[in-house]
Specification:
Structural class: alpha+beta
Order of helices and strands: HHEEEHEEHHEEEEHEEHHHEHHEEEHHEH
Largest sheet: 8 strands, mixed
Bound molecules: 4-amino-1,4-dioxobutan-2-aminium adenosine-5'-monophosphate, magnesium ion
């Protein structure tokens, strides 16, 4: 029977004593690189279990030397060999092959070649790009970050709620929904559910009901928005983390956002040091310093009204925005958000208490009658990565608002929550892909999602 292969990750986790006892090992993986001097050859073997490769050495005195020297980059292989410690070398150990098997050869038209390829080119090869160093790092960090999300919330007593992907309401009231249709000829839109159905833009409304039963909850799953914004930060399918906290106001909300973001940054830096070194060196020089700075500084809390004054002051002092018309009441564009967080604060910034006209119907109206208890977290290099608010818990005020925008039908249950033991509550949504961009320094959301969905792009 064939010996079971040990993963490269396992090898790196073993102590020196344990490694010494191993002697012979079987390893499987893909050839990253293969070079030989005619006397001895070296294969960098990658098996995807960690960022590091394993060096496999094959000698000219072995009968398979000529065969192995022809193994191409990308081919699937198995080696049996002796594990040899190599103190003082670049890698702490290597395998000296005694057996070699080519499990899967690579055809000559293999599109991934050794030369450096652009992210755009690789986007078109979504099924192969996980084999490159960059995407190996990105997608492992994505997995680790997801586990970090669950760890943070579970450790803090939050209950995980699976809110539905198919829904009858447009939670954000923004209208950019994908409609779900069936193949019925008569009425493809209303046939299945007997009413219009769409893919969710947010699990918030559904998860609010659970917060009023479990106190602290979160949902974490895919969300869909049919916005045609062709930017590096917008996808039509993305993942969102939406926590909801009962008996919590906007300050409690911001406290939770800040500790969550800091926990997740620390989590990735602890669990993925090789990947973070790679990003720091090749993708976004300085990203580790940036994250360490974030970990060690309190996030600035700024009123929207103050933000407007700062932007007006900047224009007065000669700063040129594409939109230089800064007025109270306007929805800030990315350039304005970035000025505040990058140039003015130079760090993560909570912007809060926005004009009610530009925010969603469920946000709690402040006593000034003009603003709502909303908050966005802005970060340098990216702008908004979190949006949240204290929810309107007063039945009459909420109902009047919903009636005014014609968004009551089908949401009676949501209003009822304000009648049946309602309490103040707050929550937020973290764009998971945007957070991953921020942590890795990857500049385009299309390079953080395994199979990105944006308008006019559905190749895979
Ligand atoms: O600010 P948004 O629209 O807030 C909500 O959906 C609320 N229901 C959240 C809540 O309070 N429970 O979206 C939240 C975050 C944004 O800050 C952004 O990071 C991300 O989701 N996001 C997108 N990410 C990628 N592509 C898009 N098209 C996105 N739209 C929003
Ligand atoms: Mg928002």
């Amino acid at each position: 029977m064939q010996e079971k292969a040990i993963s490269i990750r396992n090898l790196y986790e073993l102590s020196e004593d344990q490694l010494k006892q191993l002697k012979t090992v079987t390893v499987v993986g893909w050839v990253k690189n293969n070079r030989n001097s005619g006397k001895v050859g070296f294969i960098a073997l990658h098996d995807g279990t960690c960022f590091k490769n394993l060096q496999v050495v094959y000698d000219a005195d072995k009968p398979f030397f000529n065969d192995v020297s022809r193994y191409k980059m990308g081919s699937a292989v198995r080696f049996v060999g002796e594990l040899v410690l190599t103190p003082g070398m670049k890698q702490p150990f290597e395998v000296h092959a005694t057996e070699a098997v080519l499990l899967g050869d690579v055809a000559d038209d293999y599109p991934l070649q050794k030369k450096k390829t652009s992210f755009e080119y690789l986007r078109d090869l979504a099924y192969l790009r996980p084999r490159t160093n960059t995407f190996d790092a990105v997608f492992r960090v994505r997995s680790v970050l997801a586990m970090g999300v669950h760890t943070f919330f579970q450790n803090n007593g939050f209950v995980y709620v699976h809110t539905p992907e198919i829904t009858g309401n447009d939670a954000e009231g923004a209208g950019s929904v994908f409609t779900v249709i069936t193949d019925s000829k008569e009425d493809p839109i209303n046939d299945f559910y007997g009413r219009r159905a769409s893919l969710t833009v947010s699990g918030q409304l559904h998860v609010e009901a659970f917060a009023l039963a479990f106190k602290d909850v979160y949902t974490f799953g895919p969300t869909f928005r049919a916005e045609k914004s062709n930017t590096p930060r917008h996808a039509s399918e993305f993942w969102m983390i939406e926590p909801e906290l009962a008996f919590a106001d906007l300050d409690d909300d911001m406290d939770c956002i800040e500790s969550c973001i800091k926990f997740l940054i620390q989590w990735v830096m602890d669990k993925c040091p090789d990947e973070m070194d790679f990003f720091d060196r090749w993708i976004a020089p300085g990203v580790k310093d940036k994250l360490n700075h974030v970990l060690n500084s309190p996030f600035r809390r700024m009123e929207y009204t103050e933000g407007i004054k700062i932007l007006q002051e900047a224009v007065k002092n000669g700063h040129k925005f594409e939109n230089n018309n800064i007025e109270w009441g306007m929805d800030l564009q990315s350039e304005h958000e970035r000025y505040l967080t990058e140039e003015y604060v130079k760090g993560p910034t909570f912007l809060m208490n926005y004009p009610k006209e530009i925010k969603a119907f469920y946000m709690r109206e402040n006593d000034d009658g003009k603003t709502v208890a909303a908050v966005d977290l802005l970060v340098p290099g990216e702008g908004e990565i979190v949006g949240g608010s204290q929810r309107e818990e007063r039945y009459d005020i909420l109902k009047a608002k919903m009636d005014k925008i014609g968004n009551t039908e089908g949401l009676e249950w949501y209003l009822n929550l304000r009648k049946y033991g309602g309490c103040i509550h707050s929550g937020f949504g973290i764009g998971f892909d945007r957070l991953l961009m921020y942590i890795t320094g990857i500049a385009n959301i299309r390079d953080t999602e395994p199979y990105p969905r944006t308008s006019s792009a559905l190749k895979y």
